[in-house]
């Protein structure tokens, strides 16, 4: 008589379908996404390394929980958002003046893909303007626009990462884009008045 072959129970099936992920590979592939997202979500340059490290501590601790029901980036987005929210609440509670005093990262120190000084200057100025506009948005609008426009996540994944209903995510993104455009128009009008 042959031995019975063990089968997966329905409770174990989701874990069997989940991809096996190695933390070192996740870190290497996703660090730029995590760093960029945390900065765009309002973490200042002086705290950025610490926040990114905290995010990856959570990822390391919870990587075994990733079941593959969403993309890895969606799952990571949820962790990034939670850690950044906690960081901002902590800074606001301990020293609220730090949120408004934080100097933006110097875009000229970022690696540029162009060698043309004029293009590099335009890129640096555009990066500064983008950061100023993002800083003026509410946290809710900032989160959704960063995930949609900068990280190019589809709205269903944004809704999942933010814990929103799909229609709420679409509505919030529409409002965030409208406010972004208004702030951009205000900055451009101010710059136009300054030029001779």
Concise overview:
By secondary structure, the chain is mainly alpha-helical. The chain is 70% helix and 0% strand. The model is unreliable at 1-18 and 100-112 (pLDDT under 50).
Strand residue content:
under 5%
Q: CATH topology of the largest domain, which one?
A: Rna Polymerase Sigma Factor, Chain: A
Rg, nearest Å: 21 Å
Kindly, what is the distance between the CA atoms of the first and last residues, rounded to a whole number of angstroms? 94 Å
What would the keywords be for this entry?
Rna Polymerase Sigma Factor, Chain: A, Arc Repressor Mutant, subunit A, 2 domains, mainly alpha, 196 residues, disordered N terminus
Walk me through what this model shows.
With 196 residues, the protein is mainly alpha-helical. The chain has nine helices and no strands. It has helices at 13-17, 23-40, 45-62, 72-94, 97-101, 117-136, 139-150, 155-162, 166-194. The chain is globular, with a radius of gyration of 21 Å.
How do the helices and strands line up, and which of them pair or pack?
Layout: H1 13-17, H2 23-40, H3 45-62, H4 72-94, H5 97-101, H6 117-136, H7 139-150, H8 155-162, H9 166-194
Helix pairs in contact: 2-3, 2-4, 3-4, 4-8, 6-9, 7-9, 8-9
